[in-house]
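User: Before I run my own analysis I want an independent prediction to cross-check against. Here's the chain; please return only the structure tokens and, at the end, one sentence I can use as a sanity check.
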Amino acid sequence: MPRHSAPPRPAVAPRVAAKIWLSVFLAANVLLVTVFFFVGGLSDRPLISIGRLAGLYAAQAMAFQLLLVARLPWLDRRLGMDRLTSLHRWTGFSLLWLLVAHVVFVVFGYAGLEGTNAASELVSLATTLEGILRAIVAFVLILVVGAMSVRFARRRMAYETWHFVHLYTYAAVVLAFTHQIAVGQSFTSSPVARGYWWTLWIGAGVAVLAGRFVLPLWRNARHRLRVVAVVPESANTVSVYLTGRDLDQLPARAGQFFLWRFLTRDRWWQANPFSLSAAPDGRTLRLTAKAVGESSAKLRSLPVGTRVFAEGPYGAFTAIHQQQPNALLIAGGVGITPIRALLEDVAGHVVVLYRTHRREDAVLLPELLNLAKARGGVVHLLVGPKEQSGPYGPQLGPESLYALVPDIAERDVFVCGPAGMTSAVLRSVRQLGVPAAQVHAERFSLAA
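Assistant: Structure tokens:
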């Protein structure tokens, strides 16, 4: 099949298939847990029964959280880290409220049964029943992680600090599981339910180990990436070329990104997300980064031969999601890097809109023009002040998009750039009637 011919449409779009799979998986598990709960018998106190059911749902949400952060390739290629992160965040807050309900209803239920106040009953439960103290510690850890995940707190925290705090979630999971083994009614009342919970927890743990540790270690041992060239693209942008063994077997696609660790003495511990800025050719990989922080600024001085540890590829910003014969690619700033790679991989006629503040900021522009010309595509460079990329700005508003691309509703639209620009474009394409299944966005924070 020619490289740029229209892709065959699957019966179910990959993104939809993944959502259906996740929904069915979650619904089936919720149903099973509910059945096991009622089969195990209810307490004479309704508050205690409600609290126990909330605790079971919370345990299930913890296992689901592990699945979402396991970075399983099948899910990631179909949903992307943006959507998985969003699901993870909402599941986390649901977990937090379920745990609050579990603690409140159980404590007040037993307090009413014993004729004591809630504080005294909590102390009594913690000191007399096995596993309760572990549950309280797990609850406190989840509260701390939840508080630091609120947007207000997250924006004021370094990524490394936020990531380190999140590691306490794994300790909370272990403590919660041991609490469930010690006092959980599902473990004591039914061998079938006990087998279910062991299978669920072990499966979630194996998924995390496989996706976060085993697979990256195996891929890096096999491919042995190293830097072969560092090429300045502009005053503050640089491309890094890498090679390795059996790169034709690395399942990377144009539009995806890796978490890169350059194994030098001063930066081996830092992992940075950079997109591929050229489609993988089986021999080399290329990333292009703008010096927006100390870590990316140091790329310019990387020694040739530096070993690289890469986690990935990640992201669903790829041509496998293309629904229509033709495509529109919209980039802002260094969001051009995955768009530049996609220009090699998407099918049909392609229009590229490249939004920058100044013409000299348009990195990789000669490559874009040459690639577009070779395949009969069009590149429009949109230059202007930042405010012109707002929701009603003249360059990325619906009227301008329609004037530049009159058949936009019959194209797949791929968007990558700063959050404000991406949101503006998404609003514009919705107003123009582009179906949601044809719109694919990668947020700048992850993609570039």
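Sanity check: The chain has a mean pLDDT of 86.
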